[in-house]
């Protein structure tokens, strides 16, 4: 017996078992058609006198990935999830969920409505709704705490983290884990329990196990969640919903769950987080201005890779490569550095393996002081000092040593990738792979292509990034690429605000309340003030003998703040020296404390330069720092350095701590209103005519003139704009 057409298939197996198979590739999401199918098939199984038990599974070894996000924001049709799951739970025949692959979100909620859950050992389970700005609103917040207790439920629901089948068994989420075919096991099992009472199997009827220190627990969790949420409302709502499960009867708790969900669903934050979800996927569909694109560019296989230079970055990159299963040749010329790197890399690999319960991959790495050792590799990532002459020399050596066709990648953070490519005999083999520190942890990778990079080189770097678990974004070559280029106006505004009367504390607090994990000055102390100083020196912006007065703050025709340089001259490089924009207990310590010296220094600096301090509020800090950064984002789009606003937003969310619930800078600009961003930029530009970064970008003007279209329509405007430039 078989019903085709709907997105759930019904078969009778083993004579007496109704098997319902969800069919909606790739993850069997609960679309309207799937829900309708489940409702119909359950009804059919329950009304068929021959059927003694029911098993629900998903096709292609995957139970169910949850709600169909594409349906969000549309007029939802089809049967709603809650009554569907309630009806399954109320059934008078045992319903068993056979969980293979993943049971996530609505998928797990469906499983929790079943009377039994049997998982394959490789299955993963979780309620990730919070990462989309939502909560599990098909009874997840009410059933899970009743099943596994409040602390475990809070942990899973507020973080959205996935658990393995073994962990799920330990928590009590599933009843059995099997290495065999979970559907077969579930079918046999369902027959073995057919006819038994189901009274003790309906989770909604359970009393939520309450810890004795109930109030203290919720208070503590709420405090922690608020702190780590950095302004995101979904995790807080999740705690409130679980609290309802603990204190209210099921039906009342469900009402609370729905109420909280309704608030989240219509919030801008949920829209922002869902946008991020899709943007993260969209960046994989890269395209280059030449017309080359992801579908038509085949990556080269990479079995063996090399890393040149084992400093901060090279070590992390080596770890990231080894963890993907590649053989790695790691080259470092300094013997002492090589020894230290070996130890550091092994340590990182061992710790990572321990965390994941696997064996470390130390034997995949060979170390050498000699560049000749890389002759057989398929791809090289260079991470030597940020020095063009040195990198040029290294690239020439690489071209001579490597077998033909080896891809040559540079991890430069700011040097010209095209220029480097032009110094090699095969510029088409050169791309930038810009990692972020620490390279084995940070999710972002900018893949930088030049006009001569071959589509295959880009495709290979993008695919390697993916294998390393990175979110890879293909971007064009320019000073600072996308991320660091946009950071320049942001940093500059922060310095100017100090000159005008703000303190590092005030600026940081405004940015941290906005949702950044760290304000600009705490961040600068962490990464080291000397890095920017070196770049500014190279750019001849730093004048050794600084005169006072206005002219001292004009360099190369624009307003310039020498504040960072002055701190560096005092040896204040940030955390590493124990002093920077803040003070620290000792060099290397991480807890920033206000520094009275810095405050007097600012007072004295302003007086020396005839600057009259004024009161600056959070609003101005946010507008000046963020709108200047966003304005540069529009320039990047206009220049074609990023293919679309999603690329920029993903870079900022994954690499620069931009709060996900605000969607990324370009999405945020749309939320604020492009006309408002433009108006504020014009306002600040009038007040600071000597700051080119505040000059509104013509693409922004054009978008506003065109009625501020929604972000998914910007690409059309950009294309038209570029063709007219
Ligand atoms: P680092 O100073 O920690 O390490 C550079 C290493 O390269 C040193 O161990 C040095 O001995 C070695 N080296 C120099 N010449 C060599 C040669 N010819 N062959 C083999 N090894 C050689 O520098 P870091 O911070 O790791 O930076 C490396 C590159 O990564 C730079 O281009 C930098 O701009 C870029 N980058 C740095 C980031 C950071 O946060 N530190 C972030 C992203 C990119």
Description:
The protein folds into four domains: 2-265, Alpha-Beta Complex (2-enoyl-CoA Hydratase, Chain A, domain 1); 304-480, NAD(P)-binding Rossmann-like Domain (Rossmann fold, 3-Layer(aba) Sandwich); 502-608, N-(1-d-carboxylethyl)-l-norvaline Dehydrogenase, domain 2 (Orthogonal Bundle); 618-723, N-(1-d-carboxylethyl)-l-norvaline Dehydrogenase, domain 2. 47% of the residues lie in helices and 12% in strands. Helix 2 packs parallel to helix 3 and helix 20 crosses helix 21 (563-569). It is an alpha/beta fold and 725 residues long. Residues 1-5 have low confidence and may be disordered. The protein is globular and about 90 Å long. The chain is built from 28 helices and 19 strands. The strands form four sheets. Strands 12-11-10-13-14-15-16-17 form an eight-stranded mixed sheet, with helices on both faces. Strands 1-2-3-4-6-9 form a six-stranded mixed sheet, with helices on both faces. The termini are far apart. The longest helix is centred in the middle third of the chain and has 22 residues, at 335-356. The protein binds 1,4-dihydronicotinamide adenine dinucleotide.
């Amino acid at each position: 017996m078989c019903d085709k057409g709907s997105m759930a298939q019904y078969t009778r197996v083993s004579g007496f078992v109704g098997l319902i198979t969800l069919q909606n590739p790739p993850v069997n999401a609960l679309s309207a058609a799937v829900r309708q199918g489940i409702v119909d098939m359950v009804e059919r199984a329950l009304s068929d006198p021959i059927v003694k038990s029911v098993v629900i599974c998903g096709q292609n070894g995957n139970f169910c990935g949850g709600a169909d996000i594409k349906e969000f924001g549309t007029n939802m049709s089809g049967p709603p999830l809650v009554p569907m799951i309630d009806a399954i739970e109320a059934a008078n025949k045992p319903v068993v969920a056979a969980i293979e692959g993943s049971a996530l979100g609505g998928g797990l909620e469906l499983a929790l409505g079943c009377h039994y859950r049997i998982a394959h050992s490789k299955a993963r389970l979780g309620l990730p709704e919070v990462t989309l700005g939502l909560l599990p609103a098909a009874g997840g917040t009410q059933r899970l705490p009743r099943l596994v207790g409040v602390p475990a439920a809070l942990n899973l629901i507020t973080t959205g983290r996935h658990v393995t089948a073994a962990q799920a068994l330990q928590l009590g989420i599933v009843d059995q884990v099997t290495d065999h075919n979970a559907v077969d096991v579930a079918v046999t099992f369902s027959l073995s329990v057919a006819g038994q009472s189901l009274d003790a199997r309906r989770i909604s009827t359970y009393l939520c196990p309450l810890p004795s220190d109930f109030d203290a627990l919720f208070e503590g969790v709420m405090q922690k969640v608020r702190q780590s949420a950095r302004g995101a409302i979904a995790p807080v709502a999740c705690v409130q919903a679980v609290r309802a499960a603990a204190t209210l009867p099921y039906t009342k708790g469900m009402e609370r769950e729905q109420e909280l969900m309704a608030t989240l669903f219509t919030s801008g934050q949920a829209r922002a987080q869902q946008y991020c979800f899709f943007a993260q996927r969209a960046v994989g569909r890269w395209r280059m201005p030449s017309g080359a694109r992801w579908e038509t560019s085949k990556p080269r296989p990479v079995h063996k890779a090399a890393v040149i230079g084992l400093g901060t970055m090279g070590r992390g990159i080596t770890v990231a490569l080894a963890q993907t299963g590649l053989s790695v040749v790691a080259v470092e010329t300094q013997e002492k550095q090589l020894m230290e790197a070996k130890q550091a890399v092994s340590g990182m690999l061992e710790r990572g393996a321990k965390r994941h319960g696997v064996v470390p991959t130390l034997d995949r790495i060979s170390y050498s002081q000699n560049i000749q050792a890389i002759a057989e590799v398929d791809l090289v990532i260079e991470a030597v000092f940020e020095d063009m002459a040195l990198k040029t020399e290294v690239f020439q050596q690489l071209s001579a040593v490597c077998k033909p066709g080896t891809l040559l990648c540079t991890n430069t953070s700011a040097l010209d990738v095209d220029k480097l490519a032009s110094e090699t005999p095969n510029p088409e083999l050169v791309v930038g792979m810009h990692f972020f520190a620490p390279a084995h942890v940070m999710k972002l990778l900018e893949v930088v292509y030049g006009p001569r990079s071959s589509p295959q080189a880009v495709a290979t770097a993008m695919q390697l990034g993916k294998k390393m678990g990175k979110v890879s974004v293909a971007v064009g070559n320019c000073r600072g690429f996308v991320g660091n280029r946009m950071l320049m106006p942001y940093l500059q505004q922060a310095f100017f605000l100090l000159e005008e009367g703000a303190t590092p504390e005030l600026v940081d607090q405004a940015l941290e309340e906005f949702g950044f994990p760290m304000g600009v000055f705490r961040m600068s102390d962490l990464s080291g003030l000397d890095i920017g100083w070196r770049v500014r020196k190279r750019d001849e912006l730093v004048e050794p003998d600084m005169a006072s007065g206005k002219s001292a703050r004009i360099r190369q025709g624009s307003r310039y703040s020498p504040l960072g340089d002055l701190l560096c001259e005092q040896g204040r490089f940030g955390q590493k020296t124990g002093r920077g924009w803040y003070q620290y207990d000792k060099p290397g310590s991480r807890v920033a404390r206000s520094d009275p010296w810095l405050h007097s220094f600012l007072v004295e600096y302003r007086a020396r330069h005839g600057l009259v301090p004024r009161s600056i509020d959070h609003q101005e800090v946010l507008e000046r720092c963020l709108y200047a950064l966003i304005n540069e984002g529009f320039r990047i789009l206009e220049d074609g350095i990023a293919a679309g606003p999603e690329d920029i937003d993903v870079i900022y969310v994954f690499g620069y701590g931009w709060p996900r619930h605000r969607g990324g800078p370009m999405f945020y600009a749309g939320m604020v209103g492009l006309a408002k961003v433009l108006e504020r930029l014009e306002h600040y530009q009038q007040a600071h005519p000597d700051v080119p970064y505040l000059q509104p970008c013509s693409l922004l003007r054009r978008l506003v003139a065109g009625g501020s279209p929604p972000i998914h329509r910007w690409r059309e405007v950009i294309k038209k704009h570029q063709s007219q430039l």
